[in-house]
Every structure is written in structure tokens, then in C-alpha cells.
Amino acid sequence: MRVQDGFEEKVIQIKRVSKKTKGGNKIGFTALAVVGDKAGKVGTGMSKALDVTTAIAKALSKARRNVVSVNINENTVPHEVLESFGASTVKIMPAPRGSGIIAGGAVRDVLALCGVKDVSAKMLGSNNKNGAVMCTINALKKMEKK
């Protein structure tokens, strides 16, 4: 994780993709990145490029432009929420103080970067990283103040 402009950066996924052309295969890369300030702001970005470093830089730039504010209530989320994106579904639940982040994969990274310290989450359906990140961000946007 890198810190820049007050935001911590985390690359969630890098994929090698190819396009079939008349002259053969054209190779490219896709990057999925998340940024957060650990104080209630988190954003995600996905981008494609011909090389890995450019794809990551573009994804981080998009993530900084897509930052959303998250309601954090005493180091946890204010209430339980269930959110879907495509075939992925995430259930985020508040947890008692000292529990830590009980979540797996990409969901854990998003929750950590937004600053939630005690939370429990469960991925249902597809565990696709892009779907998991989008589900989690949408669920955090839906959180209301208690």
C-alpha cells in the first residue's frame, strides 16, 4: 500500500487480457484499484492499458475521482445492509468493539481503506473481485446515520 494525497492506494487485481486481431493477438492489462483515507472516504477505479504500470496509474486516477463518503459509527457500520452487483452479493454487519474486520478478499481491503475497524461481512454468490468491490462500495453508500 502506498500513501499519496492523503489516500492509501491498494491494487486489488491485475489481469492480462488479449484481443484477437488480423495480425494476431493484441495483449493488454486490466487493473482494479481502491483508494481510501481510513477516515470515511473510499473510491474505486478500473482501467485498461497496454502495460501494467499505465493500467495501474489510470485505475488509481479513476479511483481518486470516484471517492464516496462513508458513515462510520464508533469504528463500525451503523446497521446491517445487503447489496448486490451483478451475480455478487455482500452482507455487511456491525461487530462489537475489538472484533476487527471479519471479511475476505476484496471486501476486506475496501472496508479497511474506508476506516471501519470492527465489522463482519459475507460474500454471497459470485466472488469476482470487481463485483465484490462494487457491491461493498454500493453497500457503504447506502448506510444511514442512526
TrEMBL record:
It comes from the Bacteria. GO terms for cellular component: cytoplasm; small ribosomal subunit. GO terms for biological process: translation. InterPro entries: Ribosomal_Su5_D2-typ_SF (IPR020568), Ribosomal_uS5 (IPR000851), Ribosomal_uS5_bac-type (IPR005712), Ribosomal_uS5_C (IPR005324), Ribosomal_uS5_N (IPR013810), Ribsml_uS5_D2-typ_fold_subgr (IPR014721). GO terms for molecular function: rRNA binding; structural constituent of ribosome. The keyword GTP-binding does not apply. Gene3D superfamilies: 3.30.160.20, 3.30.230.10. Residues 7-70 form the S5 DRBM domain. Keywords: Ribonucleoprotein, Ribosomal protein, RNA-binding, rRNA-binding. Belongs to the universal ribosomal protein uS5 family. This is Small ribosomal subunit protein uS5.
